[in-house]
């Protein structure tokens, strides 16, 4: 336990250093990128004095080094600044959009992981049979799908051609402004709008988890303890579900942990295509508008979650696999 505590402490120090380096690089890269945030938000009829006052209000008249020191100081005190584009605190924008991203992408990752692990162990157990061949080919196709293409196909087929599901958005305004609508109807409305983006993400992630589980399961089935379990006369189902599967699922746990971490960015393409009001869509808009405070905070939030997820996955391994020691 002491060695594990030392490992965690060392990793926390490394994470802190890495995060500070990422923060610094992102700040200077954004400010050196082409584009002028003021030109995008200033009224052409605004006087030169008012324009200068606005630039000073945003702190863009300061030397770049001074802007950096101010940004670092504000960031580590929880002050993320005001969005140039929206004119409201960045913290409020993220607090409003982040739950939408977590709802969609966490649901998609968990469902695809459960389905991929379950089906992966089945086809690995039946290696070489028609089921294994068909499912593996299907998983490879899903894994290589171009996400914007499959998203547009979902919209065209299920939204436009058949009209089964809404094409964009997260809610139906008429339901949410109706004073007689209860939370149940509002919740069902959100789920109804989630179907197409959720199905798109499920297909893209499912193939990856299935292939990882199948490969790991095949490797595990060749271990000595599997042969020992068979020699003891244990039922095949018990060997598969209670001896092979738990150990084979370890690589999937790593993939799921990192997928959940990266999902914090909302899969910018998915949210943009489906007009899902999450962090990913705001990140794309912030970059296009040179909205430094919002874009930087979104990127740094992603970096912090990914770094933390790596640590959590490493620590989980120590508890899930007794062979691993730190």
Commentary on this structure:
The protein is mostly helical and 326 residues long. The chain is 75% helix and 0% strand. The protein has 2 domains: 74 residues, no CATH class; 229 residues, MetI-like fold. α5 packs across α9. The chain is globular, with a radius of gyration of 24 Å.
Write out key terms for the chains shown.
MetI-like fold, 75% helix, mainly alpha, 0% strand, 326 residues
What is the topology?
Layout: H1 2-32, H2 37-41, H3 48-57, H4 64-75, H5 90-125, H6 130-143, H7 147-161, H8 173-176, H9 183-220, H10 224-231, H11 236-248, H12 250-262, H13 268-274, H14 279-288, H15 292-320
Helix pairs in contact: 1-15, 5-6, 5-9, 5-12, 6-9, 7-9, 7-13, 9-11, 9-12, 10-11, 12-15, 13-14, 14-15
Q: How many domain modules?
A: 2
| SSE arrangement, N to C | HHHHHHHHHHHHHHH
Number of helices: 15
Q: What is the average per-residue confidence, as pLDDT, rounded to a whole number? A: 80
CATH topology of the largest domain: MetI-like fold
In total, the number of strands is 0
CATH superfamily caption of the largest domain: MetI-like
Largest sheet: none
Strand content: under 5%
Structural class: mainly alpha
**Assigned CATH class of the largest domain:** Mainly Alpha
- Report how far the terminal alpha carbons are from each other: 9 Å
The parts where pLDDT drops under 50 for at least 5 residues are: none
> What is the helical fraction, as a range of percent?
over 70%
**Overall 3D form:** globular
| CATH architectural category of the largest domain | Orthogonal Bundle
What is the CA-based Rg, rounded?
24 Å
């Amino acid at each position: 336990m002491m060695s594990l505590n030392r490992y965690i402490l060392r990793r926390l120090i490394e994470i802190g250093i890495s995060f500070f380096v990422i923060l610094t690089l992102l700040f200077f890269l954004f400010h050196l990128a082409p584009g002028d945030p003021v030109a995008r938000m200033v009224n052409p009829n605004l006087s030169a004095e008012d324009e200068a006052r606005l630039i000073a209000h945003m702190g863009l008249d300061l030397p770049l080094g001074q802007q950096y020191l101010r940004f670092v100081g504000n960031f580590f005190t929880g002050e993320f600044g005001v969005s140039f584009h929206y004119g409201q605190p960045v913290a409020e924008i993220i607090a409003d959009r982040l739950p939408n991203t977590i709802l969609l992408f966490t649901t998609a990752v968990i469902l695809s992981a459960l389905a991929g692990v379950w089906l992966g162990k089945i086809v690995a157990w039946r290696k070489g049979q028609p089921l294994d061949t068909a499912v593996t080919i299907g998983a490879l196709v899903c894994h290589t799908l171009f996400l914007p293409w499959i998203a547009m196909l979902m919209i065209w087929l299920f939204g436009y051609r058949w009209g089964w599901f809404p094409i964009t958005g997260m809610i139906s305004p008429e339901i949410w402004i109706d004073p007689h609508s209860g939370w149940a109807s509002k919740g069902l409305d959100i789920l109804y709008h989630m179907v197409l983006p959720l199905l798109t993400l499920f297909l893209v992630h499912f193939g990856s988890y299935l292939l990882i589980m199948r490969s790991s399961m095949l490797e595990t089935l060749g271990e000595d303890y599997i042969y020992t379990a068979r020699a003891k006369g244990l039922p095949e189902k018990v060997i598969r579900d209670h001896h092979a599967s738990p150990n084979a699922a370890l690589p999937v746990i790593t993939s799921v942990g990192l997928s959940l971490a990266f999902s914090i960015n909302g899969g910018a393409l998915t949210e943009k295509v489906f007009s899902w009001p999450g962090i990913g869509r705001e990140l794309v808009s912030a970059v296009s508008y040179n909205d430094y405070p919002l874009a930087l905070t979104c990127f740094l939030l992603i970096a912090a979650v990914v770094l933390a997820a790596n640590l959590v996955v490493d620590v989980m391994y120590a508890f899930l696999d007794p062979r691993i020691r730190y």
